[in-house]
């Protein structure tokens, strides 16, 4: 089992003919992802060869969906054109759209996220995210597919780099799915969305939540966990040493006064019984202990 992405997912790549789209399409295909088509307006009728097999290119998502039956898209379109690309994917009725592009104007993101929500048919992950991987089944985005195998841990993270590090730290235990939701002030999928999906997924036995300074997403996630999540959760919050008032990498990672600090987020998470590491490695060790305890209970 996995959340949102599995071996049956049929994927198209918007922006496949660009340098980043082409590079990561190659990596996704090698990882076993079913990439059926690319979409680049004005280049319909062309094809790009990967692993000796040509992948057709279409002018619109609707044309690609009609020809291939795709249900998932990954977007490598420049920021100025991302809104139009996502709306094209939503209009085509895709179930999942993963937006890798960074630097998308917040107003554009707010518009296409609201547009997708209004239709009620499309889940958006991102923008400014590393994507989603269900190890051994499918990989959509830029997460290295060889750093961890499948296993009992569900991972949701604001940070791409920390997603990779945590997967590597726990590579011997493995993951059901790992979701990078992105660190922009507005995104299509929240920690809570992923928590709900992992709670419902029978293959996920424990959940790793990675947050960072800025906003109140982690506090809201803590409140949700306290009320609705029965599986053990371990967390790490990046930014304990971040200076107030300074944006730290992600556009949403900024602390104003006492609001959005790592200390405040840690306190909110711990208040509902979540173990929080002060470093990624400490969080990984806490998760190891949780998985070991689950194994003992299962064996007993």
If you had to describe this structure to a student in words, what would you say it looks like?
By secondary structure, this protein is of the alpha/beta class. The chain has 2 domains: 10-125, NAD(P)-binding Rossmann-like Domain (Rossmann fold, 3-Layer(aba) Sandwich), CATH 3.40.50; 147-299, Succinyl-CoA synthetase domains (Rossmann fold). It is built from 9 helices and 14 strands. The protein has helices at residues 19-30, 61-68, 79-91, 106-119, 160-169, 191-200, 217-228, 262-271, 280-299; strands at residues 10-14, 34-39, 47-50, 53-58, 72-75, 96-99, 123-125, 131-134, 138-141, 150-157, 175-180, 206-212, 233-238, 275-277. The strands form 2 sheets. A 7-stranded mixed beta sheet has the order 3-4-2-1-5-6-7, sandwiched between helices. A 7-stranded mixed beta sheet has the order 9-8-11-10-12-13-14, sandwiched between helices. The chain starts with 9 loop residues before the first strand and ends with a helix. Mean pLDDT is 92; it is low at 252-258.
């Amino acid at each position: 089992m996995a959340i949102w992405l599995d071996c049956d997912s049929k994927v198209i790549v918007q922006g496949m003919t660009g340098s980043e789209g082409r590079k990561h399409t190659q990596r996704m295909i090698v990882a076993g992802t079913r990439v059926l088509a690319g979409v680049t307006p004005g280049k319909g009728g062309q094809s790009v060869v990967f692993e000796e097999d040509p992948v057709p290119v279409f002018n619109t998502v609707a044309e690609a969906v009609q020809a291939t039956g795709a249900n998932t898209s990954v977007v490598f379109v420049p920021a100025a054109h991302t809104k139009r690309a996502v709306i094209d994917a939503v209009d085509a009725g895709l179930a999942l759209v993963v937006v890798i592009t960074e630097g998308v104007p917040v107003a554009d993101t707010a518009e296409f996220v609201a547009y997708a929500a209004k239709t009620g048919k499309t889940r958006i992950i991102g923008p400014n995210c590393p994507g989603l991987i269900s190890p051994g089944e499918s990989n959509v985005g830029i997460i290295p597919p060889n750093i961890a195998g499948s296993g009992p841990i569900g991972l949701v993270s604001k940070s791409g780099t920390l997603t990779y590090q945590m997967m590597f730290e726990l590579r011997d235990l493995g993951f059901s799915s790992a979701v990078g939701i992105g660190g922009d002030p507005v995104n299509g999928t929240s920690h809570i969305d992923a928590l709900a999906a992992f709670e419902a997924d029978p293959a996920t036995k424990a959940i790793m939540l990675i947050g960072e300074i800025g906003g109140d997403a982690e506090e809201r996630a803590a409140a949700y966990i306290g009320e609705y999540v029965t599986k053990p959760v371990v967390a790490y919050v990046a930014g304990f040493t971040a200076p107030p008032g300074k944006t730290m990498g992600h556009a949403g990672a900024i602390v104003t006064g006492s609001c959005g600090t790592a200390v405040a987020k840690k306190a909110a998470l711990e208040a509902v019984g979540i173990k929080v590491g002060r470093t990624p490695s400490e969080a990984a060790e806490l998760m190891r202990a949780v998985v070991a305890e689950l194994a003992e209970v299962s064996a007993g």
